[in-house]
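Methods: example folding runs. The two proteins below were folded one after another, and each record is reproduced exactly as written to the output file, sequence line first and C-alpha cell line second.
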Amino acid sequence: MPDILEIVKVIVIGIIQGITEWLPVSSTGHMILADEFIKLQVRPEFLEMFLVVIQFGSILAVLVLYFHKLNPFSPRKTATEKTQTLHLWGKVIVGVLPAAVIGLLFDDLLNDIFYNPVTVTVTLILYGVLFILLENRNKKVLPKINNLTELSYKTVLSIGLFQLLSLIPGTSRSGSTILGAMLIGSSRFVAAEYSFFLAIPVMCGASLLKVLKFLMESTLLGSEIVILAIGMVVAFLVSVFAIKFLMGYIKKHDFKAFGYYRIILGVIVALYFIFR
C-alpha cells in the first residue's frame, strides 16, 4: 500500500490529467512542470506506463457523458439516428488513421527528438498565438459545419491530418484537432465534440499497448495497482467536470482565453528551465 504522500501526489497528477486532456492547453506542458515538483516514488518503467494508462480514466468520462450519442443500438434512437451514429464511428475511425499509423511507426523517434522543454515552450506559445489569430478571423467568418452529421469523410480525414501535429509534445491533442476543425469550417462546439470522440480509440489503443508492453517485461506490484486505480478514478471524475465546463464555456465564449493561457504557460516553462 503506498503511503499518504504518494497518494496525494497521484491525486494531483490525476487532477492535472483530467483537466488538461480536454482543454486545448497541452497536458504534456503541464506534466513536464508537474514532474519537476511531483516525484512519484515508483519504478521508472511503471511511471512511463502510468502516465499513459491514467488517460483511460479520462476516456471513460467521454463514454459516460456521451453514451447515448455514441451508442448505435440505443432503443431510443430512430433507424435514421442509428445509421448516423454508425457513420459517426466511421468518421472517428477515418480521423484517427493518420495519427495511428504515424504514431505507431514514429512515436518513440518523435519523442526522442521533440520531448524537451524547448519544443514544448515553442509549441505552447505558437499554438496559443494561432488560437488567438483564428478567433480574430472567425469574428467575420460564419462556421460552415454546425452539426456532427455535416462532417464529411473528406473533412474528418483532413482533421485527422491536423491531429498528427499532436505527436509533437506541447501541441495538445485536443488543441490540434480543434484548431484544424475550426480552420476547415467547423463550429467550436462540433470541433470540441469531435476531438473528444477522436480521443477514444487513440487513448484506448495507447493504454492497451503500454499495459501489454509493461506486463511482458515486468509485473504489477500491489502498491502500483492502487496508484493506477486512484489515478484513473481521479482523472475520470475531474474529466467529467472539465468536459462539461468546456462545452458550457464555448457556448458563450471563444478559445482566445486558452490561447493567452498557453502563451503564459510557455513563458513559465521557458523561464523555469532557464533559471532553475
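Second run, written to the same file directly after the first:
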Amino acid sequence: MSIASNVLQAIGSTPLVRLCKVVPPGYAKVLVKLEWTNPTGSMKDRMAQAMISRAEEDGRLRPGGTIVEYTGGSTGTSLALICAAKGYRIHLVTSDAFSQQKRDQMRAFGAELTLVPSEGGQTTKKLILDMIEAAEKISQKPGSYWTDQLKNVDHIAGYYPLGEEIWEQTQGQVNAFVQCVGTAASSCGVATVLKRYKLSVQIIAVEPAESAVLSGGQTGAHNIEGTGIGYIPPLWDPSLIDEIIAVKTDEAKDMARRLACEEALFAGTSSGANVVAAIRVAEQLGPDATVVTLMIDSGLKYLSTDLYKSK
C-alpha cells in the first residue's frame, strides 16, 4: 500500500462485501459498498471533493473564500473536511432534525453552524426550504461560495469513480444498483457509468414511504436522514431510473439494527433502507443475479438518535 500525501487521497476505493445472513436463500447475491471507510465515514466525501475542486478550477471559489451550504450533516461534514484540508472557511446551515453526532463532527472540522428548528425532529419539505433560504442569505456575504448541493451538477461527477469501482470489483457482473435518493446525484452518477458499460443494469431509486414523491405520492415527514426532501430534486433524471421503491422509516431502522447484529455492519438508517430495497430486488432477480447497494455512512453518526439507543 502506498502512503497518501494528504487525507484527500484517502477518499474512494472502498470495500465491497457480500451480505451473508439477512438475504434469504434463493435470492440474488447482495453486495454492499462500505462507504463509511471514506475519511468522514460517509460517501459524501466523494461529492464534496468534486464540488470544491471544480469550483477552484473555474474561479468560482477563490483563495481565502468561505463555503456555504445547507445540510443534514453528512454533506456538511465532508465539505468541512475538504475545507480544513485546503484552508477554506465554512458556514453550514443544518437542523435539530439531524443527529447531534453530525453537528459535533462538522464543528470539529472547524465549521460555523446555523441551526434551523424542525417540526418534531422530522425531515419535512418546509424544513429543507427553510434551510435553503437561510443558506442563500448567508451566501450573499462577500467572499462566499454557495455550493447549493441540490442544484450543483458538479457533484454528480464525484460519483463517477464509485460507478467505476463497482464495475471493476464485480468484474462487470452487476445486474442492479440500489440507492436512496437525497439530491439524486449518487444515483445519477453511478447509473451514468454502469449503463455506459451495460445498458441492461437496473438502477433502483429508494425513497421514504412517508414522503414518496418520486412515486407520485404526497410529501410527508420521515426520519430517514439524508433522503426524501419532500419534492422532486432538481438533479433527478428519471431516464436513468428503472424502478422506485418506497421504504418505511421503521423498516429502514429495523434493517440497520439487523445489519449490526447479524452482519456486523454498523450503518445508518438510509443504509438500512438501501438493504430493504436491495433484498426486494434480489427476490425479483433470483439466485443468478448480483445486486449492489451502499452502506452510505457509519452508525457512529446516529448514536444520539433512537436508532441504536437501548430501550
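Comment on the second run: Residues 159 and 189 are 5 Å apart (CA to CA).
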